[in-house]
Structure formats: C-alpha cells, structure tokens
Amino acid sequence: MMYVNDAKCIGCGKCVKDCFPRDIQVVEGKAVMQNKRCIKCGHCIAICPVDAVSMDDYDMSEVKEYNEESFAIDEEQLMNFIKFRRTVRQFTPQEVDEAQIMKIIDAGRFTQTGSNLQDVSYVVVREGLSELKELTLESLKVSGEKILADPNPQFEMFKPYAKLWVRMHEEYKVDSTKDKLFFNAPLVVVITANSDVNGALAASNMELMTNALGLGTFFSGFMTRASVGNEKISEFLGLKDGKKVVTCMVIGHPAVSYQRTVPRKSAVINWK
C-alpha cells in the first residue's frame, strides 16, 4: 500500500502529474492514494518535495535523497567507461567477495522493468559450478551431435559451433581444468525473468557494476543456449513461475589488463 503523510503533504500535485496509472488525487489540499491501479513504481516517492509518500511493503530505508555530488556523472567519463569495457575470459583463482556479488545484484534489482513487474531473479552459482558445467557441456554436446548428423543445409552455418561444443565436452572430460565454457572463473550469476527485455536490461547494469568493482565478466551465450528446454538445468537452477534463463554472467578477477578502448562500426541511424 502507498501512503501519504498528511502532516507533511503540501498538496502541490506533483505526484498526481507524474503518476502514470492515474492513481492519485488531491482532495481538500492533500494527496490521496487510491491504491487501485498503482504499480508501485515509486515515482510519487521520488518526486515529492517534502518526502510525504511511503509504502509499507518495501524497505523505505533504501530511499536516498538526491545529491548532485554523489549522483551526477560527467557524460565524457561515462562514455569512456562504456568504451573501455571489455569481455574478459581470463580469470585469477581469487574468489569474488559476497559484498561485491550483492552490489552487482543490486545493480540489476534497481533496473527498470516493464510495468514495474520486477520479475528478474538471480541464481548465484559458486559451490555448484562443477555440476552446472557438466550439465551445460552435456547439453551442448547433445545439441552439437544432432546438428552434425543432420544433412539439412540450413544447419550448415551452425556446424562450426556444433564441432566446438563436442570438442569442449571431450576436453573437459579428459582434463577438467580445460574449461572453455566458464574459463575457470569462480562465479556464475544466471539472470532469469519472465521477460527477456527486463532480464537483459538488468544484466546490462550488472555488467557496468561488475566493471566498476574492478572485476571482469562475459555473457555466456553457450550456457543460455544449453538451458533451453533442458529439464536438468532448469531443476538445478530452481526455475519456476514461468521464468527462463535470459543470460548468464561469468564473473571473476581479471587476469588480463587492457590499455585502451577499441573502435566500433559507425552507428546506423535513420533520422525521420
């Protein structure tokens, strides 16, 4: 439920104007929450000039007052930070601190979701990494063998990947240190959601936080591919409530350092 502290409310109507579901009215000089169409997006909390709005089922201690010195980011520095981001596949054996893991997850938790569904969940895999590797590599091997055995020309473009999946499985079975899936990283965070868009948006912010913490990460498309329709992987991850694997972040302390940004293709823009 959303609440207004009448003693604080000055009836300015800013919350009414910013409420997308139109669930707030000003009655006799005070904002009144209808709590009928509210999606708990928190815009009313954020915009109120006198901090008169609250909700009872979220932790209000997480709310922070805006301070330019703490909140504002120089646009050039932000752009350089984005440009300098690199996919990392070389990791040290050092474990990732739990406090760092929680900061990464919080970066996802505070990311916007459609209709404020907040449907994104996270599976942190540390102790069970070996099991997840085996399940994933087995799934990829089976898919690879099917593709290689299929004469249909439409699968021809996928055969290099199919051969790689089979070879990855074979090498790992002979020597488990030859990990071409997670590259011996100490941590995997699987992002699950009902909506692909919500999960992907969360993962993007999580990657930025990972880099801000001095860690390295890459998104494992192979693991995401292996999870599709795989009951064993779904059971291992504890997927339920219609959730699916959106992406998989492999995280660790980088064993490589980069010295500069890299170029990219020019943006394709259609001005109308």
TrEMBL record:
Domain 4Fe-4S ferredoxin-type span(s) in chain numbering: 1-28, 29-58
Record CDD domains: nitroreductase_FeS-like (cd02143)
Domain of life: Bacteria
Pfam family, one: Fer4_10
Organism: Fusibacter bizertensis
Protein name (Swiss-Prot/TrEMBL): Nitroreductase family protein
Protein family per UniProt: Belongs to the nitroreductase family.
UniProt keyword terms in alphabetical order: Iron, Iron-sulfur, Metal-binding, Oxidoreductase
